[in-house]
């Protein structure tokens, strides 16, 4: 039987990965494409039907498509949804002419589950969404936390459709073959993920029963745990919503549990490609069009691993928040810096990483 302490740590890890994606509710001036489902008596999001028959729900914000100079698709992370709001000043969005497309990934929100979820299916969902909504032959993609595995997939499967990419505190798959063992061997996060993967693969019923037990710590306890969050993260958690999809009540629902389990297994399972073997999808550009934003004090994804990846892929521009944890997406000013770097090539020197390199044996 797996010990209580290990399960508590696994739940904490699940929670903190999710928490990075939970953003304040959209402002009232965001326009939300909804239709009234009179038959069921509630408002449902506008959806498209994919070529395989599944429906994908979406929400639009920013300027309208006909006025857009830049189109951005935002990929939410673990346990989140299209209702996340990218935290950039409305004045800047209007000035740059940014159209933002949020969508529920398969099984989340009001999108149908995909029992065949894979790295490739995540990228193809994004491509088909862009085509059906006619946002242009090229678009930008921003992935948040675990949603960044779909962003890596876009770089591999649909690089010709990309105008630029940003990944905010992207989670790491410790099984990537190019990650040196000396860098990850003793990382406790790797061990926790391996235990969670084993349970999810070989004993999903036991895991489902266990994560909904009353003795597990509440979300509020996890949110205040310094083992998971740094000081700035904990301050953020005092003013933003919790993670409702990971409550014991929600996890009792099989459809919620299956979506989270499938997403987790795709993100941390065996990938069909090695990200560190990817080629620069923008060789013609004089500036970097791919960005990683990372907190130096991130306790979910170690900054030294992100640095290693960006050093091995010099076409990725690496930005670091010196006192940042995993919740940097919430930090004041970061959304503005991300848009200016991604769309204009402007670097804010306050996010320039400290001068150091990662040495591995």
Structural description of this entry:
One of its GO terms (molecular function) is aminopeptidase activity. Residues 72-329 form the AB hydrolase-1 domain. Residues 1-20 form the signal peptide. Pfam families: Abhydrolase_1. The chain is of the alpha/beta class. It is 35% helix and 16% strand. It has an eight-stranded mixed beta sheet with strand order 3-4-6-5-7-8-9-10, sandwiched between helices. Residues 16-42 have low confidence and may be disordered.
How would you sum up this structure in a few lines?
Helices cover 35% and strands 16% of the residues. With 361 residues, the protein is of the alpha/beta class. The chain starts with a helix and ends in a 17-residue tail after the last helix.
């Amino acid at each position: 039987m797996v010990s209580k302490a290990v399960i508590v740590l696994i739940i904490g890890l699940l929670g903190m990965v999710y928490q990075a994606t939970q953003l304040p509710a959209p402002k009232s001036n965001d326009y939300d494409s909804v239709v009234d489902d009179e038959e069921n008596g509630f408002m449902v999001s506008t959806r498209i039907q994919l070529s395989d028959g599944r429906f994908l729900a979406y929400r639009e914000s920013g300027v309208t498509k006909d006025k857009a100079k830049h189109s951005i698709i935002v990929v939410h992370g673990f346990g989140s949804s299209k209702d996340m709001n990218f935290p950039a000043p409305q004045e800047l969005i209007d000035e740059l002419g940014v159209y933002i497309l949020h969508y529920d990934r398969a099984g989340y929100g009001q999108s149908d589950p995909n029992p065949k979820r894979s790295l490739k299916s995540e990228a193809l969902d994004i491509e088909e969404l862009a085509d059906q909504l006619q946002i242009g032959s090229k678009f930008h993609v921003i992935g948040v936390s675990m949603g960044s595995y779909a962003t890596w997939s876009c770089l591999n499967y649909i690089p010709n459709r990309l105008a630029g990419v940003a990944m905010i505190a992207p989670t790491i798959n410790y099984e990537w073959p190019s990650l040196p063992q000396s860098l990850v061997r003793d990382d406790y996060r790797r061990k926790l993920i391996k235990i969670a993967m084993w349970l999810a693969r070989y004993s999903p019923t036991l895991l489902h029963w266990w994560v909904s037990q009353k003795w597990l710590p509440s979300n509020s306890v996890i949110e205040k745990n310094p083992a998971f969050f740094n000081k700035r993260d904990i301050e953020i958690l005092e003013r933003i919503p919790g993670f409702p999809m990971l409550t014991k009540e929600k996890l009792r629902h099989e459809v919620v549990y299956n979506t989270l389990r499938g997403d987790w297994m795709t993100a941390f399972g065996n990938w069909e490609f090695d990200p560190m073997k990817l080629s620069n999808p923008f060789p013609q550009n004089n500036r970097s069009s791919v960005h990683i934003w990372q907190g130096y004090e991130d306790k979910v994804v170690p900054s030294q691993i992100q640095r290693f990846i960006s050093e091995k892929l010099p076409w990725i521009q690496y930005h670091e928040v010196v006192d940042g944890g995993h919740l940097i997406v919430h930090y004041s000013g970061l959304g503005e810096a991300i848009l200016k770097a991604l769309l204009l090539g402007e670097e804010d020197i306050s996010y320039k990483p400290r001068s150091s390199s990662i040495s591995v044996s």
